Structure formats: structure tokens, C-alpha cells
Amino acid sequence: MKVTNALTWTAIATGLAYNGRSKEAIELLEAMGCHSVNPNAVTFSSLLSACCHTGLVEEGVHLFSTMKTKLGVIPQIQHYGCVVDILGRAGYLEAAYDFVKSMPAQPDAILWRSLLTACNLHGDLKMAEKVGKLLVQGDLVPNSATQDMTQDYISISNIYAAAGKWSNVEVMRKEMKRKRGFRKHGGSSVLSAPHLY
Predict the structure, then answer these.
(1) Of 22, 80, 32, 26, nearest to 54 (Cα)?
(2) Coil, helix or strand for 64?
(3) Is the distance from CB of 51 to CB of 60 less than 8 angstroms?
(4) What SS3 class is residue 194?
């Protein structure tokens, strides 16, 4: 190509990442510098996501820490989310929790849900309770996200169920229905029979 920019380099990095070649995707940062192309926020979203999906914990955390300090890209909420996902999937739940708590901006419910999912994955009931309490307080979720809050209650009760804590499951289900007025709606589908003439 006669002209390259952050978009073209990010496309290459994304392609490498999707094909499991995350280390090569990260190495593109150096190549971009050699071609006088600066990475942008989208470039880092792609690279951090690549680290997440291939378990490159140290590389992902290092990449995040150099975004602002070395390359002048201000981390946005999606970058924080990627780091939480990187740490959570690898089982570093306490580190992920501390990372969210140390954010300069107010963390949103999506970040906490990502950590809650990791708690479920690794069977960490203690951390799940801590994160779950933050989610069901309702301060993080706008009123329009009732379904999301229902999912939070269900996720927490499922974690209790997996640990065999049935009394806690019952408490969560009752609280979901009574205090919040939420109901879990059953799935439904519509089948259309072919017309027979």
C-alpha cells in the first residue's frame, strides 16, 4: 500500500488476533512505530482483546500500562473491561477486583458483570458475593436495564446453587421478586407450520 494509517495496521492486528496469533499482533506496535504510524484507542482494544482470548496476561497488563505512559493513548472504559476480562479469565480475581476499584472513572455494571462471570467460572463464591452485592444495589444500572438486573440476581443465585448453598439461592430469588419486582420470564418460540394445500 502507498499509504498506511492506524486503521490499516489495526485491521492486520485484528486479523492476527482472530487467528490466534496474538503475540504477532502485539509485535505490530513496533512495526507501526517504524512506519511513523501512531496506534489509537481502537488498536489497543483489538490488541487487548487478543491478549484476553489467548491468555496473555502479562502481555495484556503491560500493554495497558504503556498505552498512556509511552504512546499517549488515554484508556477508555472498553480498555479497562479488557483488562478485567484478561485477569478474570486467568483466575486473578482479587487483582481484577482491585483493578476495577482503582479506576479513575466510575466503573459500570458491565465491568462488574465480567468479573462476576469470572467468579462463576473459577467457583470463587466469596468474591462472587462481594461483586454481586455491588451489582444488585442498583446504583450502577440505569432503571431501563431491569432485565440486566434480573440477570445479575439469577447469576448470583446460580453461583450459590453450584456451591450447594440452596438457602442462599432461595433468598436471592425471593429478593429478586419481592424487593425489586423482577420476574424471570421463561423462553418462548414460535413455530410456523408449512401450508398444506
Answers:
(1) 22
(2) helix
(3) yes
(4) coil
